[in-house]
């Protein structure tokens, strides 16, 4: 039987062997929710990069560039890290370069050793689960967390994916079981489950509460983003 493991923060990624694994990166607030939304709305590709300098280089080469640090858009760039910014007709068919505080850094780390890197969010949970059932590989859900710390929203997503795949994958590690139990205790009201989380408090302080409810919606899109080389595209 295939295995599904959960890595609660990228700082623990070195503990996982990835040579037979698809890594699913999850950054619910808000990077992977933006990626799923953008690709669902017709963005051609999203190139995630770890640093602002790399993002700037790609902007100079003609990419539309999204750069966020500490939840704010970085000056000089075109897009922020709100999923609503990616529902824009002018982005249809575009190539986006993106750097965010946690999410794109996690993708860069996963890229180094995974067989394949995919992107997950509540927004594409069902489509992603269906796709993973058809793959021959183990799955590692990499929670982007916040600056090396685990967070509630990404752990809840990991639990939701584990719950969806529990009949096809062996859930063998305590971190996975913790995420699954947390999700099952919270699934009736995810919004209330994250209400006192650090990121929700941070986004509320900044007046961007509508992103919170949006990112917690399940199965809005059936797009499955996969990294091809350095670039995320919708799998078809
Ligand atoms: O923009 C976001 O929501 C976060 C910023 S932070 O967690 O407040 O620093 O970035 P992300 O990379 O999407 O976690
Ligand atoms: Mg985050």
What does this structure look like?
This protein has 236 residues and is an alpha/beta fold. The protein is 35% helix and 21% strand. The strands form three sheets. A five-stranded parallel sheet has the order 7-2-8-1-9, with helices on both faces. Helix 4 (125-134) packs across helix 5 and helix 5 (152-165) crosses helix 6 (174-186). Magnesium ion is lined by residues 27, 29, 102-103, 144.
Give me some keywords for this one:
single chain, 236 residues, alpha/beta, five-stranded parallel sheet, four-stranded mixed sheet, globular, binds ligand L3UKIRZJ, binds magnesium ion, ComB-like, ComB-like_sf, magnesium, hydrolase
Please, what is the average pLDDT? 97
Can you summarize the main beta sheet? 5 strands, parallel
Structural class: alpha/beta
Report strand order across the widest sheet. Answer: 7-2-8-1-9
The topology string of helices and strands comes to EEHEHEEEHEHEHEHHHHEE
Ligands, ions, cofactors = the ligand O=C(O)[C@H](CS(=O)(=O)O)OP(=O)(O)O, magnesium ion
Q: Give the DSSP E fraction (strand runs of 2 or more residues).
A: 15-25%
Q: From the alpha carbons, calculate the radius of gyration and give it in angstroms.
A: 16 Å
Overall 3D form: globular
End-to-end distance: 26 Å
Number of distinct helices: 9
**Poorly predicted residue ranges:** none
The percent range for helix content is 25-40%
Tell how many strands the DSSP assignment holds.
11
